[in-house]
Amino acid sequence: MSLSLLFVCGLLVAVFVGFNIGGSSTGVAFGPAVGSNVIGKVAAAGLMTGFALLGGWTVGRNVIETMSEGIVPNSEFTLLASVGVLFFVGFALLISNLFGVPASTSMTAVGSIAGLGVATGTIDWSVMGRIVSWWLFAPMIAFWVCAVIGRYFYPHLDAHFELDRSAGSLLRFEHSGVLPTPVLNDTTRGELLGALSVVGIGCYMAFSAGASNVANAIAPLVGSGDLALEPGILLAAGAIGFGAFTIARRTLNTVGNDLTDLPILAALIVEIVSASLITFLSSIGIPASLAVSATMCIIGLGWGRATRTTTFTETATAAIRGSKTETSKGMVRERSESIEESAPKAAERSLTEPPADDLYNPAVTARVFILWVLTPSIAVLASYVTFKLVFAL
Fold it and tell me: Which residues contact 124 (CB under 8 A, 6 or more apart)?
């Protein structure tokens, strides 16, 4: 295979990776907004494309430089090796997206690079150990922070912040003039503020995803010197946008609807906590998993809300036995009266909240965990075996 043909293959694989990044990250960034009916899937895809490009064009330049060295020396990123690494990233992400689960692009990319490093004997195990330790610890932080909020603070927050959504859209278009004019429907100030907040935080998450994930699509090619920085960013952002408008519909459904019933207040909590955790991890140089953090926040918040009328002992016993936690009417009434004393409006709403199965879906959660483990594992194994065979020849 000639060098030019190999380079074309590298570009195609980079587009393939970017396409799958768009499919995965869009669900994480805008799943809460779509799930709470603030914006539609097309609007979410458009915002994802624009802010991912902005993140890649600004902060992403530093991430691209970092991804070219660290786990393995940048001298290992030959054109052939770069194409191989990108292919394994895209292949693993495609499997995850086909199952409708938002995979971690960072975990998959690091896994592919680690496979190359192990095969060539150039991997820095101290760096990998630090990264993997945070991969295990950060999701637990995300889960328990949101679980505590959902169990103990959600009713009080719901009582003090009017963030409920009315049926229908926030905007309507009047066609009296030459061009359609957007006009606000009958909404409260709290509804409008909540909607703007959840979309704004989603845009921030899309910016962060672009800043981190553009590097995952093109850093090996940029590091090898075969692709210039600016054209590479545009190529990756365009591919992310293509994925956002197409395959992202499945992950938007999973994050926004399947994992938990997500009102707008819950969407705000999820996005604030996950965005803050990602910012912290990025500040200490850890490849941040936006997918894992946000989804664990959703699971934790749903679990906390679903178990609010039971004790931890009852919940743990039910989990060990593999059965659903049963709650007597007397217990619900007793705990509702306790809530009513401190938050009257929240008590009234808590009596009409969705059933526990709508707040926390164990079957979907199990599928998410399996795919999180399987996706980077496939990338590591495929990368290691391939490069081991290539360098053995």
Answer: 70, 71, 72, 117
Residue 114 makes CB contacts below 8 A (sequence gap 6+) with: 71, 123, 128, 380, 383
330 located within any domain: no
Give domain status of residue 333, yes or no: no
What tens digit of pLDDT does each residue of 107-127 get?
888 888 888 888 888 888 888
pLDDT digits (tens, 9 = 90+) for 356-383: 444 556 666 666 677 677 777 877 888 8
Q: What is the value of pTM for the model shown?
A: 0.70
Residue pair 100/252 in contact by the 8 Å Cβ criterion: no
Q: State which amino acid sits at residue 276.
A: S
Q: Residue 74 and residue 125: Cα distance in Å, rounded?
A: 16
Please tell me the distance from the alpha carbon of residue 70 to that of residue 128, in angstroms, as a whole number: 9
| Helix H or strand E segment including 171 | strand 171-174
Domain count within the chain: 1
Residue 257's domain comprises 3-306+361-392
Does 351 reside within a domain? no
In one letter, which amino acid is 8?
A: V
